[in-house]
Specification:
The complex is a heterodimer of chains A (about 190) and B (about 260). Chain A has about 190 residues and is mostly beta strands. Chain A is about 5% helix and about 45% strand. Chain A has helices at about 65-70, 160-165, and strands spanning about 1-5, 10-20, 25-35, 45-55, 75-85, 90-100, 105-120, 130-145. In chain A, strand 6 (about 90-100) and strand 7 (about 105-120) form a beta hairpin. The radius of gyration of chain A is 33 Å and the shape is elongated. The radius of gyration of chain B is 21 Å and the shape is globular. Chain B is about 5% helix and about 65% strand. Chain B contains one helix and 15 strands. The chains are: A mainly beta (about 190), B mainly beta (about 260). At the A-B interface, strand 5, strand 6, strand 7 and strand 8 of A face strand 2, strand 3, strand 4 and strand 6 of B.
Chain lengths: ~190, ~260
Amino acid sequence: MDIIKTDTPMTTEFIRIPVSGPKPLNTLAYIRCRGGGVFGGPLEYHYRASFVSTFQIAKFDQADLNWHRANSRISAAPFFFQFDTSSDFSFVMAVEDIKPFIDDFGRIGFEVQISQRGDFGGRLFSGTDWIMGAYEVSAYALLYEPRPDPPLPPIPGQSERKLHPEIIPPHFGKPKKKLIITDTFGLAGSSSD
Amino acid sequence: MATIILQAADSSQVSGASSLEVSLGSPAEQLIIFSGIAAPEINVDDADEFVDNEVIVKLGVSVSALESGVSEVALASIENDESRFVFATNMSTLEIDAETAELQLRVHTTICGEGTKLHRFSYQIVAKVSKVASQISGVIRIPQMMVDLVNKTEEEVFAMFRVTANRIQNDGGFERAGAPVAIGKIVGRTFVDGNTVLEYIIDGCPFNTPLRVLVTTTGLAEDLEPRQVRPPLKIVLTKFVPTVGGIDFEIFRVALP
């Protein structure tokens, strides 16, 4: 079966969600990308479309590729979002199977088995008749991505503030304004609250 | 309305089936994500009548509670023979099989047309569940004099063995292992008395279902075959007996025909 490979990453949307495991995996990524390959062309065609998303494992090191491939988990499904024919043809349009992979650069990609068959009386792409289909891939990937360590908590009893605490007295309500009474020459007299 | 039941663990019924489990902090609670392309192969040959079907995809994981779940279903493979047509995956619901506690996806489909087939549909499910602590476990012993696995990495060795719990079917009075309902994993490797010993577990097996464990291999010589060496061949897990251990296998050399 032919493999049609698309080198340019497909348009992709993704989000990363920190998770607590299973250890050592710490990131759940949701990835949605346009499907590679095309519907159209030969009347009967079965092939595998291979393409990558723009999602790349953070701080990926090629020396760790086998580890990532052995331990990462990816669950993916292709979904058609467009079927179209120019007339009442006999046709088959199918995404039969999907296999996710991690490429040499740490990008998540997919190999999708595509089948199409049309009985168009030899008129396909003659300028009047056509068949079109498009799909996207929705995938979840459970991965390990290095994260900066959180700052260490203070050692009990050794914090400068704990050894010499600064006690700030509580302050309730608005501070009262001090009223100063002056005589006609502006000289202050006795004050009263 | 006909009901079609498909097993996600059987690649002839669901292709590209995959799942992953995410820990949410509490050990009992998990987020499980399932994806796959189910193949109900529904055929109709009538452009004037709408034909409804119900497709149940058994997801191969038993749970004690389904807190919440969402599913997305869409057409994946359709065929029509030059007529008006309808293809629809109208509704999908995620539920627990009351008898086996297995999680399942129920999809309502409609099709119409001459020479019209709904071969496959895709699904993706995200479910927050509490898992049933059902488990089958055992070991696979591989004599080193038959297969030397000392110099292979754990990943390479684990990839050579596939362990499944298969539903036992009754064919004309004979019981045989049918479709797999849960897939196991190898969790450890040790070397004992000239044997490589692989420990396996199969989590989330359905309750009240007669099961048989099968081990298949890749990359071994044709005359080497795994065989179960400790009974029982037929395992039925229940709420009262949720785990069974010691279902052990050993590699034997067999005479080829």
